[in-house]
Specification:
alpha+beta; EF-Ts_dimer_sf; Tetrahydropterin Synthase, Chain A; Transl_elong_EFTs/EF1B; Helicase, Ruva Protein, domain 3; two-stranded antiparallel sheet; cytoplasm
Length: 215
C-alpha cells in the first residue's frame, strides 16, 4: 500500500495530474511508473489537441529581465477566459516561458514557422560540410535531417525547458492546458539584448519572425 501511495505522490508531483487519472494510469500500466508517466503524457496531448481549435481571446503579458538587466523579454500567452489567466498555473507558465526565451533565444514558436532564410542558411552549411559519399540520396537525407534538427532546436515549443530538460516547452504548455481545462496559446514574444556595441532584438509575432536585427 505504501509503495502504491508513493507512486501516486511521485506522478502527481511530476505531472500535476489528478489522483484519479494517476491511479488509472498506474492500473493500466500494471504499476509501472514509467509506463504510467507515458500514459499521462499521452492523455495531456489528447486534451490539448481537443481544445486546440477553441478561440483564445484573453491575453496575459509577462515581462522578464535577465542577466543584470541586459536581456529583456515580453511574452503574450492567450487563454479562453479571464478566469484561466488569473490562475497560478497560467501565470507560472508565462513566467517560465519568458525566462526560457531570455536564456535560449528561440527563432520561432513552432518548427514549421522557422524563417525560410534561416533554414536555407543551414542547408547551405550542411551541403558545404557534407562528406562525399557517392550516394546522393544518402547525402540529401543527412542534409534534411540537419535542417530539421536545427528547426527543432531553435523553436520554442520543441526546446527542452531550461529549468528541466526532461520536458519541452510544449510539454509545459500541454500540462497547463490539462490543469486549467482551457486552450492556451503562446501568441508572440519579444527578446531584446543590450550589448556594449549596441542591441539585438528578436520579435516573433503570430509564429513569424518579424525582426531580428542589431542596431
Amino acid at each position: 500500500m505504501t509503495d502504491a501511495i508513493e507512486k501516486v505522490k511521485l506522478l502527481r508531483e511530476e505531472t500535476s495530474a489528478g489522483v484519479t487519472d494517476v491511479r488509472q494510469a498506474l492500473e493500466r500500466s500494471g504499476g509501472d511508473v514509467e509506463g504510467a508517466r507515458r500514459l499521462l503524457g499521452d492523455q495531456e496531448r489528447v486534451v490539448a489537441a481537443e481544445k486546440g481549435d477553441r478561440e483564445t481571446s484573453k491575453g496575459l503579458i509577462e515581462a522578464y529581465a535577465h542577466f543584470n538587466g541586459r536581456i529583456g523579454v515580453l511574452v503574450e500567452v492567450d487563454c479562453e477566459t479571464d478566469f484561466a489567466l488569473r490562475t497560478p498555473e497560467v501565470k507560472e507558465l508565462a513566467r517560465s516561458i519568458a525566462l526560457h526565451v531570455a536564456s535560449e533565444d528561440p527563432l520561432a514558436i513552432a518548427p514549421e514557422d522557422v524563417p525560410p532564410e534561416a533554414l536555407e542558411e543551414q542547408r547551405a552549411i550542411a551541403e558545404g560540410g557534407a562528406v562525399e559519399s557517392g550516394a546522393e540520396d544518402v547525402a540529401e537525407e543527412a542534409i534534411r535531417a540537419h535542417v530539421e534538427r536545427f528547426a527543432a532546436e531553435r523553436s520554442l515549443l520543441t526546446q527542452p525547458f531550461v529549468k528541466d530538460s526532461s520536458k519541452t516547452i510544449g510539454d509545459l504548455l500541454r500540462e497547463t492546458i490539462s490543469k486549467v481545462d482551457e486552450n492556451i496559446v503562446v501568441r508572440r514574444f519579444v527578446r531584446y539584448e543590450a550589448t556594449g556595441s549596441g542591441s539585438f532584438c528578436t520579435i516573433v509575432d503570430g509564429r513569424t519572425l518579424i525582426v531580428r536585427d542589431r542596431g
